[in-house]
Amino acid sequence: VVTLDRMPIERVVAARAEMVVALKRDLVQEQEVETKAKDAFSEIHTVADYAELWIERRVSRLKPSVQEHYMKALADRVLPRLGEVPIREITRDHVIQWILWIERQVSPRLGRVYATDSLRSWWRPLRTMLKDAAADLGTPDPTFRVTPPRSRVSDVREKSTLTCEQLGLLLEITRERFPEWYAEVYVMAFTGMRPGELYALR
To answer: How confident is the model at residue 37 (pLDDT cuts 50, 70, 90)?
Structure first.
């Protein structure tokens, strides 16, 4: 911030000139960024084209497990159905038709439609990508006021607990091979504490 209080006029003029130069430089940089963005989007024609750019620019910043999930969801559940749709022409109707389609899909392993948790784990990457596309391309958001997919099947969490026999074997082997970890494994096994809760103890 430049003030005129007790400042020689020469310094005021010099400070103003510096500010003008800085503003022009910032404006040029903004225009360069916009030009690069337009150049990148000029080759984007379909949802699949945009998905490739989106994965490179945005998904690559997420943690590896989320990256893997997003890429798999797009490759297996989204692009086979929407990949060839022109990205600038995708509408709420396309999205609603995808939701109706995904709700009817049957799991080969379970022989039934997928649970709501599974459907929404595929919906989230699609919705996020299409919202970003709308912002990048200046098009209407095709996910606006679209109800997420849902299923008549209750969400089922698979149990991943050890039997008493397995737990006893784990403790026995830990005591023999990793005695320095035994106390921690024992406490977690018999209290149900999570590691974070255990290590927070004082």
So the answer is: low
Q: Counting Cβ atoms within 10 Å, is residue 81 exposed (0-12), middle (13-18) or buried (19+)?
A: middle
Give me the chain's average pLDDT, please: 87
Residue given tokens 């490739």 in the structure block: 52
Would the pLDDT of 4 be above 60? no
Pairing of strands 112-113, 106-107: antiparallel
Ordered DSSP codes for the chain: ----TT--HHHHHHHHHHHHHHHHHHHHHHHHHHHHHHHHHHT--BHHHHHHHHHHHTGGGS-HHHHHHHHHHIIIIIHHHHTTSBGGG--HHHHHHHHHHHHH-EETTTTEEPPHHHHHHHHHHHHHHHHHHHHHHT---TTTTPPPP--SSPP-PPP-PPPHHHHHHHHHHHHHH-HHHHHHHHHHHHH---HHHHHT--
Q: How far is the C-alpha of 122 from the C-alpha of 35, rounded, in Å?
A: 33
Stated pTM of the model: 0.60
In tens, the pLDDT along 49-64 reads 999 999 988 888 888 8
